[in-house]
Amino acid sequence: MVHRPQSLQEALALKRTLGVRGVPVAGGTDLIVGVRKGRPAPPEMIDLSRVPGLDGIEHVGDQLRIGAMVTHSRLEAMDLGALAAACETVGGPQIRNLGTIGGQLGTASPAGDVSVALIALDATVELESVDGRRTMPLCDFFVGPGRTVARPDELLLSVTVPLNRRSAFYKIGKREAVAISLLMAAVSVDDKGQVAIGVGCAAPVPLRAREAEASLRTHGWSAESIDAAAALVSAEVRPISDHRGSADYRRAMAGVVVRRLLTQLWRDGVEGTSRIGAEGARGTA
After folding, report:
1. CA proximity to 69, closest of 134, 148, 137, 157
2. In terms of C-beta distances under 8 Å and separation of at least 24 residues, what long-range contacts does 15-20 make, across chains too?
3. For residue 214, what pLDDT band results from cuts at 50, 70 and 90?
4. For residue 271, what is the domain's CATH number?
5. Radius of gyration for the chain, computed over Cα atoms and rounded to the nearest angstrom
6. pLDDT by residue (tens digit) across 142-187?
7. What's residue 23's pLDDT?
8. Contact (CB, 8 A) for 254 and 245
9. CATH code of 8's domain
10. Rounded CA separation 228/161 (Å)
11. For the chain, how many structural domains are there in total?
12. Are both 207 and 251 inside the same structural domain?
């Protein structure tokens, strides 16, 4: 059964009543793929497409608040550095026109390109139920493949990113689009030199490389400290081997890609740029 609430309050009431049986549906791109592969459709679906306000993008001070129903195609057209670059790699144009940022976060895939970019941008997520609203760092939102900390009665409302960060993104895959990544990483740095690093396809969840970040905070930015941080990333990730690539290859490439991104941002910083919209990048294996 498909429920089509006309307001956020109605949607939250439905989520309270249905709990885990009520699956929120945004663009439905992952849902359709699953059904075509033989997985049963959810018994109860909550279509969020008619809920006003979930597709908004607004500036809130020095941050950008992005509604859960904002599509990848809207974000790839904006000057958002790693986030725009990651959105550009999601599927083909039709998928990006339908797929939403909330849908990707809710899917909680370790291979979520956009999730990795947002982690590297030090993003926070906003959840709401009929009992109230709460926020948390995005890196704390994921708990396992397909699993998040969202309670059965909660909906993901938005994600918020700071605007004072230069950022870059790189993806390794068999081709640039319409393919699951073999490995991807994103890095950002704020105007005080504080770095955030996200890595995907390298752990059960999109990973924030805390040890590498701490090393750069301690030792500052130099070619040597970047090499040390990249080595820590390779040690911190926990990849698996599958038909796309081996664990050893992913572990090695995690360090290589993060080193490249850190070096890019370090050189950009020397030139004096300071904004979220630094160049993103893509790569193919």
Report:
1. 157
2. 15/46, 15/129, 15/152, 15/153, 15/154, 15/155, 16/129, 16/130, 16/153, 18/44, 18/46, 19/152, 19/153, 20/152
3. very high
4. 3.30.390.50
5. 18
6. 999 989 999 999 999 999 999 989 999 999 976 555 567 789 999 9
7. 87
8. no
9. 3.30.465.10
10. 27
11. 2
12. yes
For 37, the token pair is 């592969």
Q: How many Å apart are CA 82 and CA 187, to the nearest integer?
A: 8
Please, are residues 132 and 246 in contact by the beta-carbon 8 Å criterion? Answer: no
233 with 117, same domain?
Answer: no
Q: Are residues 86 and 170 in the same domain?
A: no
Among candidate residues 129, 147, 162, the one where a domain is terminated: 162
Structure pTM? 0.89
Give which of 215, 216, 211, 217 is closest to 199, Cα–Cα: 211
* Coil, strand or helix at 249: helix
User: What domain range includes position 213?
Assistant: 166-284
Per DSSP (E only), the strands in the chain are: 2-3, 22-25, 44-47, 57-60, 63-67, 124-129, 132-137, 142-144, 147-148, 155-162, 165-172, 183-190, 195-200, 207-208
Q: Which of 145, 162, 179 is the last residue of a domain?
A: 162
Note the pLDDT of residue 178: 56
Return d(Cα 143, Cα 153) in angstroms, integer: 17
Residue 228, SS3 per DSSP = helix
Distance of CA 226 to the CA centre of its chain: 23
User: From the DSSP assignment, how many helices (H) and strands (E) are in the chain?
Assistant: 10, 14
